[in-house]
Amino acid sequence: MIVARVPGNLEVMALVDLLNGLLNAAATESVQTQLDTILACKTEEQLERAAGKQANIIEMVRDMSKLMCRSARPILRKKGHGDGGLRVFSQVLRELEVISALEQMSVLLGSYQYVLWMGPVADNKQARSPRRQSVRAMPASVTVAYIHHAALAPFERRKRACFRTVAFLDMMLREYAKSAGAAGEAWSAVEATRAPLNVWILGARDGEEGWLARQGYCEDAAGLLSGETVRMNLHLLGDVEEANIPPGRRVTVSVSAEPPKSKPDLVVCLHADERLTRWMPVLAEFLAITTRDKPVVAFTSRCEAEAESAAGLFGRLGSKVLLCSVRNLFSGMAAGPQAMYDDHGWVSAIQGSLFTTTQLQDHTKAIDLSSLEQPPPEASSPKEAEGTERGQRNPAVFWGILDLKYDPNLPLENRVKVLETGDGRSSKFSGYGAAIKESFKADKKLEETLHRAVLVENKKLTRDFFVEGGYGHLMPKQVCYRRSYRDDLAADIINGLDLQSSDGCCVLKLCNRARGAGCIPIAAADLDLALERLLTLPDNVEAWLDGQDSEFPVECKWGCFQEQIRHWWSNECPVFVAEELCKSAPVEQEGKAYDGTMRVGFSLHRVEEPAELEEAEEEELPFYSTTANDQEPAVVFPGEAPPGSLSIEWLGGYWKLPAEDTTSSDLSAKVISKARQGTAPVDARQLQEVYAALGDSVQLVFTNASLSPQTLLRRYPDMSELGAFVASRLACSMRLRDPTKSNMVLGLAQASLSKGQGPCKPFVESYIHRNFGVLEAMMGRWAKSEPHFVKAISVMPTNATARFLLGMQCLESEHWKKAIVQFESALQLDPDFKAPWINLAFAFLRLGQWNNAIR
Fold first, then answer.
1. Is the pLDDT confidence value at 770 over 90?
2. Most buried of 342, 428, 779, 782 (most Cβ within 10 A)?
3. What is the CATH code of the structural domain delimited by 153-371?
4. End-to-end Cα, the chain, rounded Å
């Protein structure tokens, strides 16, 4: 189906040509056959759902949107539009919409919609009959709207989800009125001619719905309605300040703390939690209305079990359930099937009640509404329990932790801040966190381990991968500098982090240390002096070591500034980071408030290829099938995990508490959390919000394709020594699996490092030589390892690990006294280093110095 080009602007002509290509692709027999299957659902069946699937109408919109993207991809690539993926297709559709006012373009776009929904039109007698249009009440543009929503960056999609959920509810209630009977005049009337819809957002909060309203997002509530006049009156009922909310074009917005006199058509309780308890008297009045125009009450939930609990609760209160746990196309994760926790992910709607207002209020007092906040865990079937007992545990490729700050009172963009990642095998779990490790051991097993040490151990690389995955909003503001002191370094950090005054604080961090080592909260006023002490090494390290108190490693208090100085001096990473100081909402423990750090556990699992379809099922030709002439792969939407990718399971979370409460004058003691100082449980509702905020960030970070030696070496052109360092760390992570390849990658890093210059180059050179020595020692060639350890110390005399390894070489050579010197030097530079203590005792034993060995 070719439409003649129109003369005019070259860009318009290019878009016309592109749209012609999209039309032809959509009109092919293979695409039309799949559309026949997708759109075959009868009107009365659209709200039904098959086992393991969502409502038919949701599956239909998702399948159709994916087929549109997949059929368009070859054309987009051919016309020079990048990879032709989801975001590219969305951008092209937006460009087409911009020029849709042109008559020729309007005709083309109309033809494209017709081909998708009804089928191609041809003049010959063999033309296929138009499809029966079973979704006339649903906007034909809903698939395009869904594509645009799914293509958004994660945080923008999450923000848009709030008021787009109202638009989705309106659409679904119109579908309900069409297939199951009237739900009220507002949804049985013709959409284009009905009066503006009156919608209340019950329990609106200033930091959430109010914050979004001030940014103009309320207009999305009418996003699926036609017309340019006012189509909806939106009222935010709750704790919202009215100031600075812009006037809407098609949505008017009003605010109050008490219910207005006007009557709503739809009352929406977003993320029905404690808001439900507070506003139950208002809901009871609406549910008790017996007239024909009684309002619909709707709820959104972050997990399916919670949504079903909400619908079940009101079913017991005599309400008519219109929508029960329906997946929201316009949720934070765009209804992704792998997203078990999702902002506004599931919606339910009810209407009326068999009881009076007084009876409803009495019933709700007898029902524990808090049960909605913590859905009961799903019980394992006897067969599943038997499988676990037999060792048939769920295979995982990685399990780890995220440490983060969380404050539900802050605006959406600041509520969750990820501080670092970690490997579950080496992370500490105590107190309320012990159950996470036990749960993993009981239910899962590591197979085909995903090796990501270079990622989880480097705070700079971790942050960069989160940013590249579209989740930069989850990371604290961060600046990165070489570990070399200069007079204006503190000023650069203050400006880079936008610290407002000398009272502002930040956190200095070594990129590759864990468990608080090298982590220093510091006031801006003290920053310059601290940096000078941390980054200025002794002129003569050997003389400095000789002058140190031999008792310091024994008497050193964990986390004191003197110990932190030594952590910084002995660190081989050429850069450090400074981050904004993020705080959590106060955690109450024994009458005191603490600034805790939340630790959540997760496991990653490889998604397997689906089992072969039964022969009868293959004949149905689902939308993602391919034929010999149609091998274009499906386009991946948010929250999907195609075969070979990773899926995530959340294992739970808990609070790690600092040594002192928020009233302490010791900044480090009240900020740095240590599980051994105390733990506290995390409310299940808060965990759900954290999981939803994290979305698919962990999967994206751990599948980032930029972990090859070559890409790591090229990643930081302005800090070439950092690229050499992370490539060297990659080499270290593979030395047990493939020592030959490890040696080769170390050589690549060394060659890259030799081309650059800079004050921090010796740190990386020392690291590379140390690891060349380790490779020799692993092969039992201790004599060949010695020159590497000596070289590592000569270029970086403060390298505690290199001194320890040289001590180990001395042990192998039975040079006990030389070994003792190196072990004691290593402990002076890193008192928290456990291995030198053990081997120091061994050396004393070989010399017969029993008292020293015992000490």
1. yes
2. 342
3. 3.40.50.150
4. 88
pLDDT digits (tens, 9 = 90+) for 19-64: 889 989 998 989 998 988 888 877 667 777 777 778 888 988 999 9
pLDDT tens digits, residue range 157-194? 999 999 999 999 999 998 888 766 656 666 777 777 78
What is the chain's Cα-based Rg?
31
Helices (H), ranges, 8-55: 10-26, 29-38
User: Do 655 and 353 contact (CB within 8 A), yes or no?
Assistant: no
- Half-sphere exposure (Cβ direction) of 57: Cα atoms closer than 13 Å: 29
As beta bridge partners, residue 654 has 599, 681
Contacts of 221 (CB under 8 A, 6+ apart): 163, 164, 166, 167, 199, 232, 234, 251
Query: Using an 8 Å Cβ cutoff, are 788 and 770 in contact?
Result: yes
**Which tokens go with 836?**
């030198």
pLDDT above 90 (res 284) = no
Spelled out in words, what is the top-level CATH class assigned to the domain 709-854?
mainly alpha
Which residue is listed with tokens 């080769």? 744
Residue of 136, 140, 158 whose CA lies nearest to 149: 158
Please return the burial class of 681, using the count of CB atoms within 10 Å of its CB with bins 0-12, 13-18 and 19+. Answer: middle
- Please check whether residue 268 is in contact with residue 283, taking contact to mean a CB–CB distance below 8 angstroms: no
Give the whole-angstrom CA distance, residue 341 versus residue 302. Answer: 5
What is the structure's pLDDT at 805? 97
HSE of 208, CA atoms in CB hemisphere, 13 A: 23
What single string gives the DSSP state of each residue in 324-364? EEEEPTTSTTTT-TT-SS-TT-EEEEEE--SS-HHHHHHHH
The backbone region for 515, taken as left when phi is positive above 0, alpha when psi lies in -120 to 50, beta otherwise, is left
Instruction: Please tell me the distance from the alpha carbon of residue 154 to that of residue 703, in angstroms, as a whole number.
Output: 17
CB under 8 Å to 529, separation ≥6 — which residues? none
pTM for the model: 0.90
Residues listed for the chain: 855
Residue (of 305, 480, 469, 295) closest to 379 by Cα position? 305
Residues 6+ apart with CB under 8 A from 123: none
As a whole number of angstroms, the distance between CA 680 and CA 431 comes to 8
Average pLDDT of the chain to the nearest whole number = 86
Angle at 24 between CA 21 and CA 30, to 5 degrees: 130
814 has a pLDDT exceeding 80: yes
Which of 14, 169, 167, 176 is CA-nearest to residue 79? 14
pLDDT in tens, 507-544: 999 998 776 788 999 999 999 999 999 999 999 999 99
Q: What is the mean pLDDT of residues 597-612?
A: 85
Residues 6+ apart with CB under 8 A from 620: 37
Work out whether strand 398-406 and strand 416-423 pair parallel, antiparallel, or are unpaired: antiparallel
Q: Which long-range contacts (CB under 8 A, 24 or more apart) does 6-11 make?
A: 6/102, 6/104
Name residue 501's amino acid: S
